[in-house]
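Thread title: Can someone regenerate the structure for this chain?

I was given the following input by a collaborator and told the matching C-alpha cells would be attached. They weren't. Posting the sequence so someone can regenerate them.
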Amino acid sequence: MRKKLKKRCLLLTAAIALAALVLWTIWGNITVQTTVYHVYDSQLPEGFEGYRIAQISDLHNAEFGADNQKLLSILQKEQPDIIAMTGDLVDSNHTNIHIAAAFARQAVEIAPCYYVTGNHEAWLGEAYETLEQQLEACGVTVLHNQTEILCSGSETIQLLGIDDPDFAESGSGLFDLEAGIISEEIERADAGAGYQILLSHRPEVFSTYVDPGIQLVLCGHAHGGQFRLPFIGGLVAPNQGLFPQYDGGVYTQDGTTMIVSRGIGNSILPVRFNNRPEVVITVLHKQ
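Best answer:
Regenerated them for you:
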C-alpha cells in the first residue's frame, strides 16, 4: 500500500512540475521583457549623456496585442531618443508587410526610427521594395550602407546602417565571404571621425566591427539561441550553429561594445524556451 501511495505521489509531483513548466514556457512566449544596458565611453560627447536607444529586432511578423500595442506601450514608457530596427521585421516564410508597416507607423510617433535589413528581407525578392516603400512612407529612415548624423544640442554622433550580406550573396552562409561583404559595406557608409553607432543585423562577425574601431554596435539575428539552457546559454543560432558565442547580451573588445538583442518573434521554430522576447534599451553615458 505504501509503495502504491509513494508511486502516486511521484506521478502527481511529476504532473504538477510538467504543468508548471508548460505554463511557464507559454508565459515566456507571450510576454515581452525590457532589457536595459548602460554603455560608458569616454569618447561620447557630453551632450549625449543619458541618450536612450530602443532596439526592435527580429519581429518576424509577430504581434503582441492588437497592432502590437504591448510593444508600443513599452516604447512609449521608455521614452527613447531614437528607435533602432535591426532587421527581420518580416518573415519570408509567411510575409505580412501590413504588420510591419502598422507597427512602424505608430513607432515613428514615439521617436525617430532607423531601420536596417535582415536576411529575411533579402529573401523577400521583389516584395522587399514594397516593404521599404511603406516604411519610408511611415517616416522610417532606411539605411543602406549609409551614415546619419544624430544631434543633441550642438553636439553630434554618427549612426551607420548597413544591409544584410544576403542581399549581396543570398544564402551563401560562408563566414569569410559574409565578413568581407560587411567590411565593404562599413567602408561605403563612409563615416568620419567621432563617436559611431552601427546598426547591423549580424552579430557573428564581431571582429569585423572591432577592426574599424566602431564604438557601439547593435545587432539581432541570433534569437537568443532560441532555447536557452541554464548556465550554458543559447542552444543554436543562425550562422553560428550549436552553442553560439554571440547569442544575446553585451560583448566588448578593444573599445568596441556589441549589444545583441534576443529579438521578439520566431522563425522556423515557433516556440522559445527560457528566452523571453525582449525590447532592448541602451543608455549612453560619458565615462
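The radius of gyration is 20 Å.
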